[in-house]
Amino acid sequence: MSDVTSGQSQAAPTSSGVFTNLQLAEWIQEDPSLPRNQHVPYPDIAPTTISQMEVNGSAPDYSSLQPQIMQLPDGRRVNPGPVIGDQFTTKDSASS
After folding, report:
1. CB 1 within 8 A of CB 7
2. How confident is the chain (96 residues) per 10-residue block, as mean pLDDT?
C-alpha cells in the first residue's frame, strides 16, 4: 500500500497458506470523536482515488467486483465511482 501524497508505503506480505486465496480488499474509516461522547464533524473523505488495483497481476474485471456504499453519521454517502482501467474515485452524495 502506498500513499502517493507523502511517499510512504507499507507491504503486508502473506506467506501462510490460510491467506493464499484472498477475495476482499477493505477500507475501514473510523468515526473520530472526543472523550465523553463529544462528537467532531466527520472528515471530508471524498473524492478519494484508489489506483493501481491488481488482481493476479492485471487490472480487475469490473464484473467480479462487489462495491459497497459507506453511510456517514450525518446521512451523507460515499459511493465508489466506475472502475476505469485500474482505478476508481469515490464521490460524496447526500442520502435520499
Report:
1. no
2. 80 60 69 69 78 82 81 83 89 71
- What are the cell numbers at 89? 474515485
Q: d(Cα 8, Cα 1) in Å, to the nearest integer?
A: 9
Gap between the Cα atoms of 60 and 56, Å rounded:
9
Tens digit of pLDDT for each residue in 27-40? 777 766 667 767 67
52 vs 42: CA distance, rounded Å: 27
Domain boundaries, the chain: 43-96
**CA dist list (Å): 67 to 39, 42, 70:** 28, 22, 10
Contacts from 54-61 at CB under 8 Å and sequence distance 24+? 54/86, 59/83, 59/85, 59/86, 60/86
